[in-house]
TrEMBL record, chain B:
Protein name listed in UniProt: Sigma-70 family RNA polymerase sigma factor
The RNA polymerase sigma-70 region domain, residue ranges: 28-92
Annotated family: Belongs to the sigma-70 factor family. ECF subfamily.
Domain of life of the source: Bacteria
Amino acid sequence: MGHPEALEPPDPHARPERPEPPEHTDRATIPPEADMSPVPGSGAGTPSHSVLKSLLGAWALAACSPDETAAVEDHLGECAPCAEEALRLRDAVGLLHPGRDLDLDPLLRFRVLENCLGRRPARIPVPDWATPYDAEAARLDALLRDFGESEWNAPVRLRWFDGIDPAQRKTTVAGVIGHLLTVDGLVAMALGLDDPLGPNAPISPTERTERFWRAESQLATDEVHGPWRDQSHALVRTVSFAGRGVSELSVSYGEFSLPLRDSLLDRAFECWLHADDIAGAVAYPYAPPRGSHLRQMIDLAARQLPAVLANRRRHGLASPAKHLVAAGSPGRSLHLEVEGAGGGDWYIALDSPAAVGSPDHSVAQVALDGVEFCKLVAGHVSPKEAAAGQDGDREAINEVLFAAASLGRL
Amino acid sequence: MAKDTPLRWDRKMQQRLARGEAAALGELYDKFASLVHMLAHRVLNDEGAADLVTREVFGYIWENPDAYDPKQGSLRSWVAKLTNSQALHRLRLAEAAAIATGESSADELEQKVRRAAAAARADYIVSSMPAPLRAALELAYFQRRDYRQTAADLGVTEDEARRRLRLGLQLLSSAHTRPLEGSSPPGYGRSL
């Protein structure tokens, strides 16, 4: 540490272990004259009592030059009040303690809030359908909390499936948060909050993201982290106050729209998968959402599949409908069996969004893990590579897997 | 809320909690959970016990938002104080059980509680001391800057840097001598 080891110097082992900064080694090379001269009242000789006393804090922290350290330690042998204070301050250094950077278990948030609300029910609760978004935003925020400059600038490859082929874009961790900020902004606008992109911004999620990335070529962390988190808190707060009817409020994405409750669930899904992208980029582990939240996300995708199939059919990407039935009647279905936490059984109507999926009309079965299904939906796994058990009508299976993958977008 | 001063944020948060707004509780957790857990872990040195203290502290705040008096200091320092007293309370319970089974002696308990109380008080002092003092200690201790570098980093004179380091340590040293303030706020320790 570069100071003489006289009079039991401050304990270097009490310090957190980290590499010595290079500047530190320069300390010993400062010439004694230069070293002592800035100390007021010091002539060529020994510094005065008051100067030495003022150095006691720095001495206890081993933050003096070697000459100052030596001068202080000489003085301590002669001056009882200073020696007493020096001892006290050095003991105080032992109480300094590095904050633990350990990540809290995300489940702890759920358990703590559940306990609170059990003890005193909320007068203004967060609606059930908003809790997955609340939980996922909190998890991502906790991941970002200890990020430094290098993590924020870490490259991230965003992958999705454009309907036919895998697609990808390169950005940074800050760019991903900017993407979440701008697309969450669509929900904010629907609720009457300010658009983070300002007035007259485009509606399409991709165009919004591109505009943000263009405008902020060198993203500073405080330009995205704070605004993203403030907006996510504001969304949860606003839907809590908005009352029941708000869950059906239409949120426009340009080419399509979703009722608010589904839209916020979709944002929770995106938040998780992009948090997973970020965690992967900085080599952190990142767990999937709670089972009950995962189940709602899977359900949202399963509900959207018949309409996506119909859309792909119109574009010649799926084969013509086989057995059209009256609206509201059970039709030819695919049995989607999702395993693991958040799993369950879904019956996807194959021929028309107007038909109802039914176990009695099942022509094929696909079985896969919940997280695998979500990665397929996000376009992180291609339909051909998805680890899915398959049984029955090959064509139906293929078309549903491609439809699921094309739900993904930037 | 983004542009609020800390004091205004504290008051607003208190009002929102008092109103029974669950979203405010979530925001409170997001802001202070890592502080609460860290302080509790420092005293108890046990992950599960720190989780429980975290649960109890937020439960208490949610049930008693009016117990916070903004005139007495920041919400952060109040939360830190509640955490320390709850963690020490739990440490005493655990140690009392150990004495009952003969695993520990009363002397050992007293020593352990005193050590933990000093550590808790030190954490409390650091988390609520004026930011300029905290910043100086942070640079000199954790970043291993000497006081001249500390002065340059903070944009203050070397005199001032020496003064802050000494004053910060003087404040901290009181953790050894003074008992933890409010170690059992009225109706707190027992009601949990």
